[in-house]
Amino acid sequence: MTDQDPFNQALEEMLADHSPRHLASELDQQEQQMVRMAQLLRGTRAGEPSPVFRETLAELLAQEPRRISRRTAFFTTAGALAAGLLAGLGLDRLFRHGGGGGNWVQVASADTLHEGAVQSFKAGDRQGFLIKQGGRLRAVSRLCTDVGCPLNYSNGNHRLVCPCHGAEFDLHGKNLVGAGPYSTPLPPLPAFEIQVEGNAVKVWTG
Amino acid sequence: MEGSPNLEGVFSRYLDPVYRFLYTRVGNREDAEDLTSEVFLKATRQLDRSRPEASMAKWLFTVAQTVLADHWRQYYRSGAPVQLDETRAAEIPDRGHSPAPTEKSEALVAAVLEQLPERYRRVLELRFLQGYSIQETAREMKVTPDNVKVIQHRALAKAVQITGEWS
Fold first, then answer.
1. Of B161, B148, B35, B46, nearest in space to A72 by CA
2. Quick check: helix, strand or coil at residue A127?
């Protein structure tokens, strides 16, 4: 199966429910159209989206309006100042979430987090990484902003790496390598609000 | 209030039809999932929540078509072959009812298969509709696996040629 020509390989990939798109550039125009014809034939067998996909996408979408509102509401300097002020008062949450939809959830004990720690957590239906750098804590979403696959921490280069299409993010959530062979740049990973109460490290799940 | 129960409703009602619409055209789960995600992410960013739901649904499928067209452009450098696009599919006479988003391509597939010689139709049915492997198809058609590949290649070429003639 492995030493097939790209045309037959593309057909096999598609029949195995994988994308043949990475092979398209190795095909001539006629072959591309033939693969697309095969895709159309195979497409008559469309099923339901898988429960895992349904759930992952729902979670990704739930994070999306938050990111947008933050960007648009607080983009100007005045907005940023106001945001800082509101955050200091703990009111930005109310402002942003309309007063509902989240909790503070403990995700770690402060005394177990050493400098440089990168720890994954689940809080309600959210997933993230808790990171300690320069004595400070922060938390970013664990879900890739491409299609929502959970990222893995690679401690060799201190990056968060997507197992699905190879996207990479730094420990601040900034996208360094995009997804797929064309490396489409991606939005940053949303940050969690974080709070330390005594020894309890908590994140806001709204 | 920016929390949008609206959007959740739209998501839960239209995930299946949008996914199926895309799967029908790409024929594999990976592409269908990637493109569906893209459609709903775009929708979340751009959705006008004051729209009535019917126009929202229509708009979602417009987004799906744009996302799909971008996909073909991005990966298949030759661009969309005219014979497989929506307008061609729409020209296939249907049976007098208004087609669901996935029905056009089903009609197209049926029409293509109908015009193929028996042997070509058989290989395409076994391979792509039933999902038989090359070996299974070879056993079924009583030919060698290499023959299956040759027949399959000719059948797909012929199918492309037939749809090309419709344009």
1. B46
2. strand
What does chain B come to in residues?
167
Q: Are residues A138 and A198 in the same domain?
A: yes
Measured between CB atoms, does A122 come within 8 Å of chain B? no
Tokens 């739209």 belong to: B10
Q: Are strands A175-177 and A191-192 parallel, antiparallel or unpaired?
A: unpaired
pLDDT of B128 strictly over 60: yes
Contact list, A43 vs chain B (CB under 8 Å):
23-27, 105, 109
pLDDT tops 70 at residue B16? yes
Q: What interface predicted TM-score (ipTM) does this complex get?
A: 0.84
B156–chain A nearest CA distance, Å: 5
Backbone region of residue A17 per phi and psi (left: phi > 0; alpha: psi in -120 to 50; beta: other values)? left
Asked if B109's CB is within 8 angstroms of A98's CB, the reply is: no
Which residues lie below 8 Å from residue A159, measured CB to CB, with a gap of 6+?
Answer: A153, A168, A169, A170, A171, A176
Residue with more model confidence, B58 or A193? A193
CB-based contact (8 Å) between A135 and chain B? Answer: no
Nearest to A18 among B30, B41, B44 (CB): B30
Give me the pLDDT at residue A85, please: 41
| Total domain count, chain A | 2
Average predicted confidence (pLDDT) for chain A? 78
Domain that holds residue A26: 6-43
Question: If 0-12 CB within 10 Å is exposed, 13-18 middle and 19+ buried, where does residue B133 land?
Answer: middle
pLDDT tens readout for residues A140-191: 998 888 777 789 899 888 999 987 778 899 999 998 888 776 566 777 888 8
pLDDT of residue A58: 86
Cβ contact (<8 Å) for A24 and B105? no
User: With an 8 Å Cβ cutoff, are B3 and A33 in contact?
Assistant: no
pTM of the model: 0.58
Q: What is the pLDDT of residue A140?
A: 92
Determine contact: A40 vs chain B, CB below 8 A: yes
Which structural domain range is residue B47 located in?
Answer: 5-80
| CATH classification at residue A145 | 2.102.10.10
Q: Is residue A1 part of a domain?
A: no
